Amino acid sequence: MGAGKTTVGRILSRKIDAVLVDMDLEIEKQQGVAISQIFEEQGEPYFRAIETEMLRDISQNSDQVVSTGGGIVIKDENWGIMKESGVTVYLKASIETLFNRVKHKTTRPLLNVDDPYTKAKELFESRRELYEKSDIILDREGLEPDEVAEAIVKEIEA
Description:
It is a single chain. With 158 residues, the chain is mainly alpha-helical. The chain has one domain (5-157): Rossmann fold, CATH 3.40.50.300. 57% of the residues lie in helices and 10% in strands. It has 8 helices and 4 strands. The protein has helices spanning 5-15, 23-31, 35-42, 44-58, 76-85, 95-102, 116-131, 145-157, and strands spanning 19-22, 64-67, 89-92, 136-139. Strands 1-2 form a two-stranded parallel ribbon. The protein has a two-stranded parallel sheet with strand order 3-4. Helix 1 (5-15) packs across helix 8 (145-157) and helix 3 crosses helix 4 (44-58). The radius of gyration is 15 Å and the shape is globular. It starts with a helix and ends with a helix.
């Protein structure tokens, strides 16, 4: 959430001549509504189920960079799919950096609460250990998106 997955993914996909797949956009296209509306009308468990289905479908393809939603890591099934189909990357940043990037966005359903910073911090803390199961962990503090993408390329080629 706010790590720059889609921005970095776009740059990375160009560098390695791959297709960028933004899972959130694909889910919105498939469902015909915004993710925030899915959360509001159907709930998080429903969203997580269609997210896993989308991941399973997407993982059948090759030569792609997949930008997932931040909550993809909470289901073990998703980790299995991701590990089988490619390299996983954790774009590490501080909670302050992440929150500053998303605090004005209204498209973050899990942050539509009275105290969004506390909620963001709770999500960050509960997911950090899961993110750290990634194949590549890249601290992106102070790096521009193109520098992050270049660092990922170097890690993959190492």
